[in-house]
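Suppose you are handed a protein chain with no further information: no name, no annotation, nothing but its sequence. What can you learn? This example shows the usual starting point.
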Amino acid sequence: MVALSSLDLWRRASASGDGASGGGGHSYSRFPSDFPFHKRIPGTRFVVDGFGAQCAGDWSRAYFLTHFHGDHYAGLAPSWDKGMIFCSQVTGRLVVEALGVRRDFVVELAMNSVIWIDECQVTLVDANHCPGAVQFLVEVPEHGTRFVHTGDMRFTPVMKEDASLCNFVGADAVFLDTTYCNPKFVFPAQEESISYIAETIERM
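A reasonable first move is to predict its three-dimensional structure. Written in C-alpha cells, the prediction is:
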C-alpha cells in the first residue's frame, strides 16, 4: 500500500527548484479563523480546491484538486510552491501542461485505490463530471472519522454500487456539490442525452 508524506514531498520539490529548500525543522501555522469550512477536511491539514490567497498558506502542505475547472483550481500558476497538489492522473497532466505548474509539486493518484497520505487513508472515485474529476474519500484513523468530498459530482445510480462509496455510508460528514439540488432543475439522464445527440447527428 502506498504511503506518502506531503511534507517530505514538498521539501524535495522545493529543493529541486531554484536552490530554495523546504528542509530543516518545520512548524505549521494555525488555520485562519475565517478559513472556508468546506475546503478543509476536519482533523487534518488537507485543503480541497483551495489554492488562492485565502486558502493557501503555511498551515498545509497537502492540497487536493477534485477536477480541472477554473473555479476549483483558481490560484494555481507556474509560481505555485505552497504544497503538494494531489489529484487524478488526467487532472495532474492538465495542471502541468495547461497551467505551467512545476511537475515536482503535482502528485497523480490512482483511482479506486487506498493511498496513505499524512497517516490518513485517501481513495479517489469517479465524480461523473468532466474528464479526470474525482471525489475524495478520506479516513482519519487518529480520530476514527470518515469524510466524503464530492467536488463537482453528477450523481448516477451506479454510484450506489461502488464498493468504495458503500464503505463510506454513515460518514461523519459529506461535503456535497449542491448546485443542482433544487427540484426545479430536472435534466435527462446522461445516457439519454448522448443517445439523442448521436441520433441527431445520424439524421444530418
